[in-house]
Amino acid sequence: MKKICFIVLAGVVLLLSAFTISKTIDWKIKDGYSIKFSGNGAEGKFEKIKGSISFDENDLSGSKFSLNVEVESIATGNWLKNRHARGDNWFDAEKYPNINFVSTRFTKTNNGYLVVGNLTMHGVQKEITIPFTFVNNIFKSTFSVNRMDYKIGTMEGMSKKVSNQIKLTVSIPVTKI
C-alpha cells in the first residue's frame, strides 16, 4: 500500500512539475522593433537587436529576457556622428561590439511590470530596473541610463555637451514561438 501511494504521489509531483515548466511562454522578436535614444546632443537609434524572451504575465517566476544590441547598428542620421559614436571615445564598437541585458527578476506593478537585470555596455555591467508594459504582444519601455556610469564618452571637449542622462525608448513586438 505504501508503495502504491508513493508511486501515485511521485506521478502527481511529476505531472505538476511538467505543467509548471510548460507554462513559460517563449517569444520571438518580430521586425518593426525600435530602440531609440535621446538626450541633449545625442539622438538616434540602434537598428539590430537579437535575443530570447520567455514571459508569462500570469507567472513571472519563469520569465527571462536575454537581449543583445549590436553597437555597430547605431544610426544617428549623420554618418560623422555614427562614426564618432562607434569610435573608441564613445561606444568603442570594435572592442565592445554588443550591449547586453539579462534579466534576474520581474515584478508586476499597477502600470505594468518592472524587470531587474544586468545591463552591460562598454565593458561595464550594472544592475538596473526597467519599467515596461506588455500589450498586444508588444513590450514597451521608457527609461534612462547615465552614460558616465558605463564610461561612454568623457566630460571634456564636445563630449561635455552631451547629456549624462540618456533616455531610451524601446518597442519590441513579439510573436509566440
Which properties best describe this structure?
177 residues, Lipocalin, 16% helix, alpha+beta
Written overview of the protein:
16% of the residues lie in helices and 48% in strands. It has 177 residues and is an alpha+beta fold. The protein has a single domain, classed as Lipid/polyisoprenoid-binding, YceI-like (Lipocalin, Beta Barrel), CATH 2.40.128.110. An eight-stranded antiparallel barrel has the order 1-4-5-7-8-9-10-11. About 7% of the residues have low confidence.
Q: Briefly, what is this?
A:
The chain is an alpha+beta fold and 177 residues long.
Query: Could you name the CATH topology?
Result: Lipocalin
Shape: elongated
CATH superfamily grouping: Lipid/polyisoprenoid-binding, YceI-like
Strand portion:
over 45%
Category from helices, strands and their pairing: alpha+beta
CATH class: Mainly Beta
Secondary-structure element series: HEEEEEEHEEEEE
Task: Walk across the major sheet and give the strand order.
Answer: 1-4-5-7-8-9-10-11
The total strand number stands at: 11
Proportion of helical residues: 10-25%
Gyration radius over CA:
21 Å
- The tally of structural domains comes to 1
Distance from N terminus to C terminus (CA atoms, Å) equals: 44 Å
